[in-house]
Design goal:
Rossmann fold; 7-stranded parallel β-sheet
């Protein structure tokens, strides 16, 4: 297991044992390939919506969305606690907007966002995790629509957390919707000790509008989580894995401070990040310091 990720998990496991306000069901909508009812996550999946085929029961014929959901809220049951998520009390709203190959269309993501906005009070949805991205062609009409969609969600009280993309190390490679000025965009910070910079795949800013991105970094390489079967686990790497770590951390923050707005959350992320002393268009505010974040 990635050592940075292990440190986060070890801290959050102890944190949840020591704090009485833990356990409030903060809803996290995961727009992805779906979610398989793995033994470690099925109790957390309180709703499922399929933009691709209209199926009613949770499924994931790719595995990416299940892996992401497990990082947020996996119970660790099948591994006897070895592979546990950031916040096993979080409620997952699984939304399938990508197909079996892990690809999809902008209108399906927009359909997912519309569903989330319609049901945010019903399921206490506070966070939208988008571990997917379009291209870095900011003039593309689909990308413009994605950016408009996530910003509407943000303005309606949802903390949108999106992957920076895996198109690094060149500058100007942040993918949509992560280029949005408003939302929280997440890159990977792995292997700093060896290279003094994030791994080469993590996308860099600035955006075409000269906005510094990403906003925050955290672990992203060799992250174990749920496979799309009943009891299995699999290890994956990418900013797709970094993103649910941040979403899980924010779900813990919102358990403690349920009145926080998206702007409040972003300020908290900014003020507690660890400055790595490198370009802002590589690190944003810096690297997640979950202990400082949860002491707010």
């Amino acid at each position: 297991m990635n050592s940075k990720y292990k440190n986060i998990i070890d801290y959050t496991r102890q944190y949840k044992m020591e704090n009485t306000y833990c356990g409030r069901k903060v809803g996290v909508a995961v727009i992805d390939t779906g979610v398989f009812p793995h033994n470690d996550i099925k109790a957390n999946v309180i709703d499922f919506y399929d933009c691709i085929s209209g199926r009613k029961n949770p499924y994931d014929n790719n595995g990416h969305g299940t892996h992401v959901s497990g990082i947020i809220a996996g119970s660790g049951f099948s591994s006897r606690g070895a592979f546990i998520g950031i916040n096993p009390d979080a409620a997952i709203i699984g939304i399938k907007a990508l197909n079996q190959k892990g690809s999809g269309k902008a209108h399906h993501v927009l359909q997912a966002l519309e569903y989330i906005l319609k049901n945010k009070e019903k399921y206490n949805i506070r966070i939208v995790n988008i571990s997917i991205g379009g291209s870095d062609d900011y003039k593309d009409l689909d990308n413009i629509a994605l950016i408009d969609g996530v910003e509407m969600a943000w303005e309606n009280g949802l903390v949108v957390v999106a992957a920076a993309g895996n198109n690094g190390p060149d500058s100007g490679t942040i993918t949509a919707p992560g280029v949005s000025r408003k939302i929280i965009t997440v890159g990977s910070s792995d292997d700093m000790k060896k290279t003094n910079r994030p791994v080469s795949y993590s996308s860099r800013g600035p955006t075409c509008h000269c906005i510094i991105k990403p906003d925050i970094l955290c672990a992203g390489s060799k992250i174990p989580s749920l496979a799309n079967n009943n009891t299995g686990y699999v290890t994956k790497s990418g900013t797709s894995m970094s993103t649910p770590i941040i979403s899980g951390a924010i779900s813990l923050l919102l358990e403690k401070h349920p009145d926080m707005t998206p702007k409040d959350v972003k300020i908290a992320i900014k003020n507690t990040a660890k400055d790595l002393g490198i370009s802002k268009n590589i690190q944003g505010y810096g690297e997640l310091d979950i202990e400082k974040l949860l002491k707010i």
